[in-house]
Amino acid sequence: MEPLQALTEIAYLLERERSSRYKSKAFRAAADAIAGLDDAALRDPALRRRKGIGDSTFAVIQQTLAGQVPDYLADLRAKTGGPGPSRLRAALRGDLHSHSEWSDGLTPIEAMVAAARSLGHEYLALTDHSPRLRVANGLSPERLRAQLEALPPFSGDGFTLLSGIEVDILEDGALDQEPPLLDELDVVVASAHSQLRMDAAPMTRRLVAAVSNPHVDVLGHVTGRLVEGSRGTRPPSQFDAAAVFAACAEHGVAVEINSRPERQDPPDELIGVALEAGCLFSIDSDAHAPGQLSLLDYGAERAERAGVPAERVVTTWPLERLRAWLTRER
User: Fold this and answer.
1) Which of 135, 194, 225, 305 is the most buried (most CB within 10 A)?
2) 237, exposed or middle or buried, with CB in 10 Å at 0-12, 13-18, 19+?
3) Are 37 and 115 part of one and the same domain?
4) Helix 3-16 and helix 71-79: axis angle, to 10°?
5) Are 80 and 13 within 8 A, CB to CB?
6) Per the structure, how many domains does the chain have?
């Protein structure tokens, strides 16, 4: 193992475990700081004074050069768990919900793409936030246009980067982005991020209006609940699930099975309602860092346990079939 590999793996595992973003960013900064250095420069004690190198990252570099698995990495590997392998996880070909540093993600687009490739993804949708979500540095129309112009041409060699957005569902069910811009995107994930405690009737109308919008492909983390993690817990939104999922089925909108362990959204009982309604599903990571793309393990395990058939999961489809669905008649 090379020092660069060790630092990158540590950052990846910290991201997967949703540790402090400052920890993972420190290890990624150290990896950037030593890129291109030879062994002599890495062994030089002056390396400790280089910007981006701290006590922990310096120790990782020196232990790796000594032929050891760094203590920090060995400890993380021992702690990192997750569900066992599942047939559904093996069937997944990609992910339709991810974020980069353009909004509230931790890394450039290129790092997300590299991680997706390493997981064997055939496609990844970049879905940064929309403008009203200022706390997440949501993209104004101007910034979204700039992102589309700047998107690296990742296509071919068995992998495709899809353009997209996680667009906020406003209180009246409208979408928080200009319709002509939404027309230009490959994937539109619509999610509610505010006013989650609305009464059931207006929340039902809000969600039905959103999934009836011809731009929407995926209904993201539908209840907005949080069940664990550093942000605390939050109860699920209340709405008529049968009505919302009937609208999803009618308009061909996929219900997201959000893979983040702190969300576990929809709850198991609502997955059952969506199954009964005839919905499609999208198992997504909602990754905000490269290591979180592997959280698909959790979503696939929940979906398989709930009895979701692989053929109704759009992220098991090959790219040609996925594109046909994304460009369907609305």
Assistant:
1) 225
2) buried
3) no
4) 30
5) yes
6) 2
**275 is in which domain, residue-wise?**
87-326
If asked whether residues 72 and 92 sit together in one domain, one would say no
**Phi, psi (deg, nearest 5) at residue 129:** -75, 165
Q: Which of 24, 45, 79 is the last residue of a domain?
A: 79
Could you check whether the bond before residue 179 is cis, i.e. omega within 30 degrees of 0?
Answer: no
- In a shared domain, residues 27 and 141: no
Pair 109, 182 in one domain: yes
Q: Which amino acid makes up residue 40?
A: A
Pair 148, 286 in one domain: yes
Are 208 and 250 in contact by the 8 Å Cβ rule? The answer is: no
Confidence of residue 156 (pLDDT cuts 50, 70, 90): low
Compute how many other C-beta atoms are within 10 angstroms of the C-beta atom of residue 19.
15
Residue 135 in this model has a pLDDT that exceeds 80 = yes
* Burial grade of 149 (CB within 10 A; 0-12, 13-18, 19 or more): exposed
Q: How does pLDDT run across 263-297, given as a tens digit for each residue?
A: 999 999 999 999 999 999 999 999 999 999 999 99
Query: Does residue 225 share a domain with residue 204?
Result: yes
pTM, two decimals, is 0.92
Q: In angstroms, what is the C-alpha Rg of the chain?
A: 21
Question: Same domain for 168 and 75?
Answer: no
Choose the final residue of a domain: 79, 100, 123: 79
Of 212, 163, 222, 220, the residue nearest 190 (C-alpha): 220
Question: What's the gap between Cα 54 and its chain centre?
Answer: 29
- Picking from 108, 173, 180, the residue whose alpha carbon sits closest to that of residue 144 is 180
Supply the DSSP string of 149-215, one letter for each residue.
HH----EETTEEEEEEEEEEBPTTS-BSS-HHHHHH-SEEEEE--S-TT--HHHHHHHHHHHHHSTT
